[in-house]
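Quick sanity check, BAR domain-containing protein:
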Amino acid sequence: MDSLKSAFRRTTQTVMEKFGKAEGTIDTDYQDIYTQFNSTWKTSQGFSKHVGQLIENFHAMSINLHFLAEDFRDLYSHTADAQKKEASVLLMGIAEELENKAVLPFQNQVTTHILNPTNIYVERFPPAKDLHNQRKKLLLEYDYYRDKVKGLTEKQSKNPLELPKMKEKMNVAKDDYDRINDLTKSTMTDILSSKSEVYSPVVEQLIGNLIQYNERTSATMSKLKKFGREPLAGNVPSPVSPTLHSSTTVTAHQRELPARVQSMSLGGAKEAPIPPQFKCEWFYLDNNVEQQGPFDFIDMRKKFKSGVISDQTHVFGGELSDWKTVATVPNMKKELQA
């Protein structure tokens, strides 16, 4: 740990001036592991989020059904229609029964046996990401000193002690990098290898809970059957993709916005398209050589146009194997200006 701390303290200004010029060390095994790591992290977060939303939606249904039952009761409280009064009382009881026999058991079982273990799994990712960020800094430093040693070897220095000193710095940087590289790969591999043992029982449990919820809901709602009639057919819209549905919803909402706000929203929709190679997480180094990010490319555009970053700012992301200035990444400056 002391060697890691010392590595961060060594000549940061000199290293900053050299960013992007050294030939990067590439570990293809690490790149493959990191790609799987990022993908699994995103998917795991999505799974936990959507299971949580499912619980909330089921709970909201029973609550709204209870409110609807109260409305139904009040509508017929002053009439002589005994059947409607009976139906309203039954609907009130059904709302409570659904909450107690279907929604609450689903919530408790899913939270205990699905959300808790998957959330624990998701919590393992941020520490590994921190190791990845440390690795990037140490790799950058090692590449810098290695490049300096190469330069001093190719041309004779006026100071005979300069090459041995630089070799010593390079060796220290390499030891630090090798140690953090092995630790990061091991940590990420452990997380990826345990995915199946976490999610296999969880998915089976979730399917069982959904079936149980449906059975209990159907049994409870069937009590209303004698008070209802066959549903009339309605206009069934053509299936739409989630993206298209979201776009349609926004458009409908914009009709209700004040003209100024609507024009701003429509203006945002004209954002220049992002090329595939830039559709990823991006990081940059600020003036204090501190890593900032992750940001998507739209955020990077805003920072570029506001002057937070420039064509000389060092960035990392996508297919880059090392830090590079914006100006040296093909087409990046052009796309940031778009």
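Posting the structure with no commentary besides this: Residues 1-21, 240-269 have pLDDT under 50 and may be disordered.
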